[in-house]
Automatic annotation (TrEMBL):
Superkingdom of this protein's organism: Eukaryota
Species the sequence originates in: Gongylonema pulchrum
Protein name: GLOBIN domain-containing protein
Gene3D superfamilies: Globins (1.10.490.10)
CDD domains, per database record: Mb-like
GO molecular function, one term: heme binding
InterPro entries with a match to the protein in the record: Globin-like_sf (IPR009050), Globin/Proto (IPR012292), Mb-like_M (IPR044399)
Secretion signal, residue range per the UniProt entry: none
Length: 154
């Protein structure tokens, strides 16, 4: 049975890569781990640059006269939004659609003002690398759990 990962193919992912991402992400986010282990920690603790940029922007917006009516979401909220976005991207693998790309573009436009606080492409790349590290660790742990103790002896 071949699963047609249409959007994933257009993004240059092989079917087995897309399947691995889908399976790993669903396992990572299943109950009771619905906060997707490690993602909150990456944004709040491990990646200090994101935390500093976020709090600088929140402080600036808080004292700025022209932004009185603007309510900024917390860093914790943003980590949940980020998890939701990743889930949406992974679920979009099965469809050929520009909707997800338009959604990502809208998010980018909304965050363009963070450049003045240091939020650059390198920060996104670092977040991506840390996310992949979190996924790989979970895959390794899960594969160890399924092995028999005698298989682990060298």
């Amino acid at each position: 049975l071949t699963i047609p990962f249409l959007q994933a193919n257009e993004w240059g992912l092989k079917p087995e890569q897309a399947l691995a991402l889908k399976v790993t992400w669903s396992k990572l986010c299943e109950t009771p781990h619905s906060t997707c282990r490690g993602i909150n920690a990456i944004m709040d603790q491990k990646n200090k640059a994101v935390r500093e940029i976020f709090y600088s922007a929140a402080f600036f917006n808080g004292i700025s006269e022209h932004r009185k009516s603007y309510s900024i979401a917390t860093l914790h909220d943003h980590s949940h939004f980020f998890i939701s976005l990743i889930s949406q991207v992974i679920h979009s693998f099965d469809f050929r659609s520009v909707d997800i790309l338009e959604h990502i573009d809208k998010i980018g436009v909304c965050h363009a003002g963070l450049k003045k606080f240091g939020f650059r492409q390198a920060v996104w790349e670092q977040l991506g690398e840390e996310l992949i590290d979190a996924l790989v660790v979970q895959v390794c742990i899960k594969s160890l759990r399924t092995q028999k103790p005698e298989d682990l002896k060298t």
